[in-house]
Amino acid sequence: MRQPGEITEIRGGMMEVTFCRPEACAACNACEGGKREHKIWIRGEGRVGDIAIVDMPDRMVVRASVIAYGLPLAGLLGGMILGHLLSGGADAWTMAGAAIGLGASLIALKGTEKRRAGRAEWSPRVVDILEKGGQAEIRAL
Question: Phi, psi (5° rounding) for residue 52?
C-alpha cells in the first residue's frame, strides 16, 4: 500500500509525514476519531513541503489488521465462553469473563506491539520523494 504525504517537519534523520485520509475511509471515522489527517514519523531525507511516497507491503497491512482486530475479539469471546462454562451460565460471570479476556488480549497486543515496532518488515518506508513545486499534488488515494 503506497500513500503520498507531505513532509511537515524534519528532526535529525526523521521526517514527520502528514497524510490525508483516503476517500474510502470517509464514512468510517474509526481512525483517531475521524481526523482528516494522520501523521507519522519515519526515517528519511527530504525537505519540508516535499511529498514523500510511503510504502507498507499489503500483506503486512492485512496481518496488522488481523492482529489488531482479531486478538481482542478472540480474547473477548474466549473469556466470555470460559466465564459461561465455569459459572454454569451465570450472566454476571459470563460478562466478567468477557471483560477479563478482552483486557488480557489488549495487554498481550500492547506487549507484542513493542516487538513488532522494532522490526523493519513492520515499519513503513519512504520509496520516493517528490520535490516541492513539482507535478505532485497531495490527494487521498
Answer: -100, 130
Range of the domain at 113: 57-123
128/74 same-domain check: no
DSSP codes joined into one string, the chain? -EEEEEEEEEETTEEEEEEEPPGGGTTT--GGGG-SEEEEEEE----TTPEEEEE--HHHHHHHHHHHHHHHHHHHHHHHHHHHHHHTS-HHHHHHHHHHHHHHHHHHHHHHHHHHHTSGGGS-EEEEEEPTTSS------
pTM: 0.58
Tens digits of residue pLDDT in 57-67: 778 878 888 88
User: In this structure, are 2 and 22 located in the same domain?
Assistant: yes
